[in-house]
UniProtKB/TrEMBL annotation:
MF terms (GO), sorted A to Z: DNA binding
CC annotations in GO: chromosome
Domain DUF7281: from-to ranges: 130-286
UniProt-recorded name of the protein: DUF7281 domain-containing protein
Amino acid sequence: MADDLSLKAKGLLATQHHKLLFDEASVANVSRILEEILNWCDDLEFQPGKWLKSNKTYRFDRDYITQINQILVDEGYANIFDNFDQDNHRSAAQRSPNEKQAKRKPTHHLILCAVTEGAALDAINQCFYSCQHQQTNIELDVSQVRLNAFDCLVIVENRDSFNDWFEYKHYANLSKPLVIYRGDKYHSTACKTILRSWLNTQDDKPAIYFGDFDLAGLRIATSAGYSHLLLPEYTWLTKNVIKQHYPDNQQKYLARLELDCPIGWQPLLQLMRNKRTGLRQQKMYDTPLILYSNLG
């Protein structure tokens, strides 16, 4: 199984392929991106061209670029000529196992606005962050949230999936959930605070982790003390997991998970480990979601 190449590596290959059509002497300068491509080819035991000028420039063979592209396509990855400039993570996930190739990130079109006059809202066609008028995202002070007003806490791993909670909720069937974005570096501290408060004061209510079905997600849920995972039904998972969503860099979590994984989640861990597969959250639209208790 070949790993995917980065978007920049694919861009370099596509550029060289185009240049070689018109100039057979075209070369690529030494760079980390070039090194990534050559290491990828070394793993597959072939050289896609040759070094020139004492390893300072590299000339690709156009036929080998075509071969690289075919290998990527055969593995289910996006080809080197695909353009993801107008894709967000959700749309990219429909075209490639690697949704992170999308150029439109979940927060690229958002701003935080200070409004002191209510009339100013008349000039804004949304309320805070509005998803087709079915969801509103707001920033909250964690100290001002009355946790006992909610029946369960749901922490969502990915920002784009959090923005689309209004779509997922119809498949989750949860009563009075408090739905929180797990957060990047700006929001993750407050998320940890509210999770601790929930676990300390609402111990009879579910603390639910909704994220990627992979070793990293299971590690987070296990170490943080969540009581439930929100995921598609097990039979559906077995038929829809993707080998590219079991990255090698997560293998380091497996040994600890085999020791610490709660009994109720061990069948999920076994599915990942035995099939060496996973599934990112962006592939979980339009399918029933169920709760997996850590107690089984």
